[in-house]
Amino acid sequence: MTPERYFKIKAVLDKRQPDLTVLMENVNKTHNLAAIVRSCDAVGVLNAHAVSRYESIRIRQKAASGSSKWVGLKLHSTVDSAIRELKSAGHQIIALHVDPKATDYRYINYCKPTVLLIGEELEGLTEQAIRRSDACIKIPMLGMVQSLNVSVATALALYQAMAQRQSAGLYDRCRIEEQAYQRLFFEWAYPRIARILKLRGQVYPVVEAPI
Fold it and tell me: In the chain, how many domains are there?
């Protein structure tokens, strides 16, 4: 462990936002998945969530530029169970949805614990997902097309959330609980050793700062 790597991992973990996340409903195109996870990493999302009609979602490591190693991805069986779990943890569910009545994405308070709910590339969100949401947002369009690519739209909303949270000072202190922080630090620093210890049921050692 070099000092440079140690302090890079620390700097990134210190700014992770455990209460900002995305929930992808049937987003299945590999390049979109990769781009969304990459945007999550860029703005400090700790874990993302997904619901898919397929058995599993695979993110191509190369396409994601390695970001899937730094953002956890939890799969849910249904959108209803995913929203129920996230709401029970205190999150507001904000649906990115093309609707004239939706709120401009810049006028939502993202400093609250927030889930950005995004839908399938062609069909968008299901009616069930929209009904369970607390608010719908849209990105204003001045051209002929009605909507942006799902990964581009997600990136815009996430960067708006980041801007608000930076202004509110939410990136100025570490917001991950200490035990989870130490676990993540070891898994990021020593992924192969972490997998072995996890299989053996052994506790990770604390990573000390290099002298």
Answer: 2
